[in-house]
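TICKET: design request
STATUS: open
ATTACHED STRUCTURE:
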């Protein structure tokens, strides 16, 4: 097949690798509009289960990603000025730029053409004219999807809280949180290492706090200084780093997360992959993982159904929509937990941190936090209560939604 992939993110590049491994005679080109080495974001997170899947798909790129990653097991939260620790499963971080370079090198090694600074204008672009399969991996703002918006049935909803994506020279050896109360409300930070030199920091707050602190109108430089002061105990005096400056006085790039869903994932020979098809709130750290899993599922469907492209694309879409349900549910509840943060901040810090770990629960929003904490502790040692909790959560959430 002649396969054209629009978008050189992790999902698009990894799909090109998988297809070249399946059949080296596939003619595959990846078009990426940005320059090589230019990417939005600092580091990405993933968990051990993803590495197992990547090893099955392509051991060489999996080994390179694992070697370039850092790992942690603990979660640390600073609530006001009190630090608490939670023991957890192993997590991994890798620089997004580093991951893209490793995948692009592996793709080229297998014979894929990777073209940077090469935007594709839309579905009628000459680059797509004779492709047997077009993979739209061009992100949440996908031109290919939007050109056929009615066919794909995309829906986008915006979150309430503004957030900003930053880096820091503070190297975290655990996934860390800090929650600070100001005279204008709460502001918080998620932070994790992705190399031996830098970490990612995502800062979020309510719109009221954002405006009250003047973050809606201050320059990026002044924003960084204010955030460094607020989170000084988390950063240990290390600076925060913004995106590339666009002149003195440029504002910080605060965003509102957009949740994307699509009714169908293919139209003719064009198929969606990664953020072009779906997004899940950054607080569950699953965006890159889901894109790579899309690539694995699409390659599996094409292997299983050979030249029957319509069947392969339909099977891929059904499978991934079903598999995404738990992640999308977890992301929705996670985002809501943070949007309702004051509800949990009256708890003692270690209890608040315990409920932070339970933020994906559909039952939690409907039970007083103190009561839920005790219920969860008891369920940890009583299997019948644990089963009741799992059974009750979706039913309470469904009843509340109907009401």
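STATUS: resolved
RESOLUTION: sequence designed for all positions
ATTACHED SEQUENCE:
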């Amino acid at each position: 097949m002649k396969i054209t992939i629009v978008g050189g993110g992790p999902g698009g590049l990894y799909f090109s690798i998988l297809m070249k491994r399946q059949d080296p005679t596939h003619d595959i080109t990846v078009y990426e509009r940005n320059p090589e080495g230019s990417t939005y974001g600092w580091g990405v997170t993933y968990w051990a289960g993803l590495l197992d899947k990547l090893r099955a798909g392509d051991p060489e790129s999996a080994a390179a990603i694992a070697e370039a990653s850092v790992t942690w097991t603990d979660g640390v939260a600073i609530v006001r000025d009190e630090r608490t620790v939670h023991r957890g499963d192993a997590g991994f971080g890798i620089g997004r730029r580093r991951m893209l370079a490793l995948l692009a090198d592996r793709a080229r090694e297998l014979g894929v053409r990777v073209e940077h600074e090469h935007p594709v204008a839309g579905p009628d672009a000459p680059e797509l004219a004779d492709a047997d399969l077009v993979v739209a991996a061009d992100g949440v703002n996908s031109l290919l999807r939007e050109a056929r918006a009615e066919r794909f049935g995309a829906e986008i909803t915006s979150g309430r809280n503004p957030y900003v994506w930053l880096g820091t020279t503070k190297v975290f050896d655990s996934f860390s949180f800090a929650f600070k109360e100001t005279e204008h409300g709460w502001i918080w930070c998620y932070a994790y290492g992705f190399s031996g030199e830098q970490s990612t920091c995502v800062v979020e707050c309510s719109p009221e706090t954002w405006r009250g602190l003047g973050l809606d109108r201050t320059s990026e430089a002044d924003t960084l200084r204010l955030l460094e002061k607020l989170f000084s105990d988390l950063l240990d005096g290390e600076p925060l780093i913004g995106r590339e400056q666009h002149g003195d006085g440029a504002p910080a790039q605060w965003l509102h997360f957009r949740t994307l869903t699509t009714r169908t994932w293919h139209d003719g020979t064009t198929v969606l992959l990664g953020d072009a098809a779906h997004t899940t709130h950054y607080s569950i750290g699953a965006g890159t993982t889901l894109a790579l899993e899309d690539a694995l599922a699409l390659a599996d469907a094409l292997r299983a159904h050979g030249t029957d492209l319509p069947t392969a694309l339909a099977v891929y879409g059904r499978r991934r929509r079903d598999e995404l349900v738990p992640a999308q549910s977890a992301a929705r509840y996670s985002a809501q937990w943070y949007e309702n943060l004051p509800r949990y901040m009256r708890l003692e810090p270690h209890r608040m941190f315990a409920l932070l770990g339970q933020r994906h629960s559909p039952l939690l929003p409907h039970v007083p936090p103190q009561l839920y904490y005790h219920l969860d502790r008891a369920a940890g040692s009583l299997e019948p209560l644990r089963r009741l909790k799992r059974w009750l959560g979706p039913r309470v959430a469904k009843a509340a939604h109907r009401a």
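CLOSING REMARK: The chain has a mean pLDDT of 92. The chain has 14 helices and 15 strands.
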